[in-house]
Amino acid sequence: MELYYSFSVIIVIATLFAYINNRFFKLPSTIGIMVIAMIVSIFLVFVVSHVWGDPLNNLAALFRSIDFTDVLMNGMLGFLLFAGAIHINLSDLKEQKAPVVVFSTLSVIISAFVVGIALYYLLNLLLPIINIHLEIPYIYCLLFGALISPTDPIAVLSILKEAKVSKSLETKVAGESLFNDGVAVVIFAVILQVVEGSAIDLTFTHISWLFIKEAFGGLLVGAGLGLLGAKMMKSANDYKISVLITLSVVMGGAMISHLMHISGPLMMVAAGLIIGESKRKRMEVEENSNNNLGTFWELIDEVMNAILFLFIGFELILIPHLERYWLIGAICIGVVLFARYISIKVPTMVIPFKEKFSNGTIKILVWGGLRGGVSIALALSIPEGPYKQVIIAATYFVVVFSIIVQGLSIGNLAKKIKI
């Protein structure tokens, strides 16, 4: 019952913030909710806590009682990815399959290692020269690189649509964001086992098999679930049954991925793409067909995103003395943007894509690569240790900067470049 009351409070707060943003701030919905949550958090931390500590303590206790990593990774993420995938046109995705595959796999690996190496040399070799000591071991720098590399451009997709960028660019951004979460989680899990000192085979063969099992296993099982769900929906031909089938695919798929130890995110992406494509084909054939199912999942997407960005905004309360980490946060922002540029630029130079990537397209892909809740959830999942707090704080700085600064400026950048 306590969990029910906790989520009731969260839904009420998210609704209130969404209404305030709609009436006064006029920001994109998810960004507006997060900004208001951060303003409230700062007010509670620096004003209310010195006068009357109960409101801050009560709110902090509420969010501390909910395991954000578990809620997002084992619950909300499946809904968000399925909701995103069901609206992606599979034929558009096939046209952009080469850049989507490369950016969601190779680029994630490149970014993780560039962040790890650059951050290590900056903190451990260059900054001590000017008497600034923020040393962090290389393996922890690499762990940070793995968790911060997946992009989460949920907030930027609507802005890109308003800016009227090309369909191909929009598909690249959306496709990359759908697939790279599963890849990044595998990389993060392997590095985390090394950090924990677990006995793990680090040979190329073992790592490749682990990736194939997690990634391709998730895609294969997800495709099977999607085909089964699409067939049942077609034979039932009823909106209410279709909603129940899609909910069962998402929630049942989460249990299957846990039991089979395969990638749940990639499973939901595959299932969503196939069910979404089946729905579109039926709408083209049936004259009186409606898009009630798509509307339902748009609503789910909006609600889940409101809760997610509310969590991100209020995480500020749960990070003690966040102001002490501003320098390493600023450094990490620069390093992550540099790594994002390298991870996009190098593949476009080396791999002979059919479509030539202009400097403008690369700028949009770099600046539009927002970080989000997945990075924070992975940072929070790190076991207690001497560097956990600094990694969480650095992650929070990068995520907030990317969502607010990059998210609010990507539209103007896209219009300026006129892609």
What do these coordinates show?
The chain has 419 residues and is an all-alpha fold. The protein has a single domain, classed as Na+/H+ antiporter like fold, CATH 1.20.1530.20. 80% of the residues lie in helices and 0% in strands. It is built from 18 helices and no strands. The chain has helices at residues 2-25, 29-51, 54-64, 68-85, 90-95, 97-104, 106-126, 138-148, 154-162, 167-195, 204-236, 239-260, 264-285, 292-318, 326-350, 359-367, 373-380, 388-417. Helix 15 packs across helix 18. The protein is globular, with a radius of gyration of 21 Å. 45% of the residues are buried. The model has no long low-confidence stretch (mean pLDDT 87).
List keywords for this structure.
419 residues, mainly alpha, 18 helices, 80% helix, globular
Distinct helical segment count: 18
The average pLDDT is: 87
**Beta-strand percentage range:** under 5%
How would you classify the helix and strand content by structural class? mainly alpha
* CATH architectural label: Up-down Bundle
Can you summarize the main beta sheet? none
**Proportion of residues in helical segments:** over 70%
Q: What is the CATH top level name?
A: Mainly Alpha
What's the arrangement of secondary structure elements?
Blueprint: H1 2-25, H2 29-51, H3 54-64, H4 68-85, H5 90-95, H6 97-104, H7 106-126, H8 138-148, H9 154-162, H10 167-195, H11 204-236, H12 239-260, H13 264-285, H14 292-318, H15 326-350, H16 359-367, H17 373-380, H18 388-417
